[in-house]
Design a protein that fits this description.
The protein is an alpha/beta fold. The protein contains ten helices and 20 strands. Strand 13, helix 8 and strand 14 form a beta-alpha-beta unit.
Length: about 350
């Protein structure tokens, strides 16, 4: 039988700001992700869930087992969560960073006798612990374990008969055909190699085939301290089809200064799928945060766009207010809320890394 790629079937990946059916979270499970901070992390999750459900978003929470669910429910009751906007799903997990281990959701419009309808599919890429950690098998299986309840139409991502490794934090789309990613994450042939033997041309075609994008833009490196080795969601994000925010470091002596300047220079020479230039809005960086002598990937670019709110990580930093103000101007029809993320970032990720939107 002739195989049609998702793109050939008419599927495309929507932007994060398009309407969601739900937001997915994996309730914190692995204490090693937040050394010495695991207990308070549950309350940060409570704040995330409260912010989303208060504004009408359905939140779907994956828990490892019944005891784990009871623990989550106890925390959420104490912070006053509206249980009408919560659903729990039990499935074994390793770490639960949902942005990276959940499928990529795509849509297509189909004409029927009753009119046009939207169909959805869940593109299942391989998650292998960022080509770094050994504990990933349960997280990689989440799509198949959840689908009996969700009814997802799962399509396995392929390219030339091979499976593709891809994490959601490594890409960002504008919903019109353009995708952002980084060379450090997906083209490095020595460190955390996701798809050995696949060159730039191959990887671009794999993205086009499986996500329905047409225009791929390559930035250089991600920020210092990012153990994913270059995820784009810590540096540059679409906020509408023609505009991105780009993290900017003003201190020329900071390790991120040259990295982010190079990415800005690249963006200045790039074009959208329409042929127009990209509107680039600078987003400040917080002052460096470290744990045990290691730089943490603290960035305001790791925000999450819900149906009615934008959740932004904050770091007890003077630039918190500046970042919130910039994003509030860019999302005039959503409420922009800061979520304290000093503890979260000890896990080497914050709000966008933890969440995954499921389109409506």
């Amino acid at each position: 039988m002739y195989y049609q790629t998702p793109a050939q079937q008419g599927y495309t990946m929507p932007a994060e700001w398009e309407c969601h059916k739900a937001t997915w979270l994996g309730w914190p499970l692995n204490a090693n992700d937040w050394p010495g901070k695991f207990v308070p992390i549950r309350w940060v999750y409570g704040e995330i869930v409260r912010a989303l459900t208060r504004h009408g978003e359905l939140v779907r929470i994956v828990v490892d087992n019944q005891r784990h669910e009871e623990q989550a429910r106890a925390v959420l009751r104490k912070v006053g969560i509206d249980v009408q906007n919560l659903e729990f799903f039990q499935s074994p997990m390793n770490r639960g960073w949902m942005r990276d281990c959940m499928p990529a959701f795509v849509n297509r419009t189909v004409e029927t006798d009753a009119g046009a309808i939207t169909e959805h599919a869940a593109i299942k890429f391989i998650f292998n612990g960022w080509a770094k950690y050994d504990n990933w098998q349960h997280d990689n299986a989440l799509a198949y374990r959840l689908s009996p309840r969700t009814g997802w139409n799962i399509i396995e991502a392929h390219y030339k008969n091979s499976h593709i490794v891809l994490e959601g934090g490594g890409i960002d789309v504008n919903g019109k055909g353009t995708l952002l990613t980084t060379e450090e994450c997906y083209l490095d042939t020595h460190i955390q190699v996701r798809n050995p033997g696949m060159d730039k041309t191959d990887f671009e075609q794999a993205l086009k085939d499986n996500l329905g994008v047409t225009n791929i833009l390559w930035l250089g490196k991600g920020i210092v301290g990012d153990d994913t080795h270059g995820h784009v969601d810590d540096i540059c994000r679409f906020i509408n089809p023609t505009t991105v925010v780009l993290a900017q470091e003003d201190n020329p002596y900071d390790a991120n200064y040259r990295i982010l300047e190079e990415n800005r220079e690249r963006l200045e020479g790039m074009y959208l799928e329409s042929g127009s230039k990209i509107n680039v809005v600078p987003l400040p960086m917080p002052a460096p945060l470290t744990f045990n002598g290691v730089r943490l990937p603290a960035s305001y670019a790791n925000f999450y766009v819900g149906n009615h709110v934008v959740l932004v990580p904050t770091f007890n930093d003077p630039n918190d207010r500046k970042a919130l103000g910039i994003l509030a101007e860019l999302f005039p029809h959503r409420i922009v809320l800061g979520i304290h993320a000093v503890d979260l970032v000890w896990g080497l990720g914050t709000l966008h890394c933890l969440t995954r939107e499921e389109p409506a």
